[in-house]
Amino acid sequence: MKKALCIMSGGMDSTLVAYIMRSRGYEIIALHFNYGQRTVSKELEAYRNICNDIGVKEKYEIDLDFFKTIGASALTDHTIDVPTEGIEPGVPVTYVPFRNGIFLSIATAIAEKEGCSAIAIGVVEEDSSGYPDCRESFIDSFTKAANLGTKESTLLTIEMPLVHLKKSQIVQEALALNVPLHLTWSCYQSESKACGVCDSCRLRLRGFEHAGVTDPIDYV
Q: Residue 13: is it exposed, middle or buried by C-beta count within 10 angstroms (0-12/13-18/19+)?
């Protein structure tokens, strides 16, 4: 069976991507990163629960503590407040410098080892927080670099099936595939009940509202 390495945060987008890849006939190999984010424990719990639900046999959990040393992001530097006043234009302070580039580099190494033909990532371009490493042009460029830097027998595609979707469409697709949205976690700053006011919570809640359904997770 063809294999896909799915980068899974425990959030709604990357979880849907894993279920999409399974529906396309791939065996799912799961990859999760603990990078010093504020909700590291909750995201890891969500990731493990989702892996159990989808029946993942092979999974990786990788610690990247150096992101805290780099800082410059409200997700990894606790001296920087997570914005709660609404989504502003431009690149927000929750952007972690080149995070997806680093994630994809490690994913490429694992995918080559595992004999995967695809890496799957839940980047969303149109309805995201404005992160530069979520753009389709970046992923396309990285795909070329990954194939240049691996063995000739390693032929990888990087799948990004959500890149042009709105959050409401993501909710609808997840419901159609019976994705366990109640197991997912999106909040940037809380590990008990979602705060409801950070950028990620606002995007998620807006998506459910526009899809006409209720978000199954608990909010403050």
A: buried
Please give the mean pLDDT across all residues of the chain: 96
* pLDDT (tens digit per residue) in 49-65: 999 999 999 999 999 99
The answer to whether 194 and 171 are in contact (CB under 8 A) is no
CB contact at 8 A, 2 and 25: yes
Token readout for 85 is 């006043």
Domain boundaries, the chain: 3-211
b/e sequence 153-167, b meaning 16+ C-beta within 10 Å: ebebebbbbbbebbb
Fold of 3-211: Rossmann fold (3.40.50)
Alpha-carbon gap, residue 189 to 45, rounded angstroms: 15
The Cα 16–Cα 161 span in angstroms is 9
As a whole number of Å, the CA-based R_g of the chain is 16
Give the closest residue to 6 by CA, choosing from 207, 213, 179.
179
CB 50 within 8 A of CB 18: yes
Provide the whole-model pTM.
Answer: 0.96
- CA 102 to CA 188: how far, in whole Å? 20
Q: How far is CA 6 from the centre of its chain?
A: 9
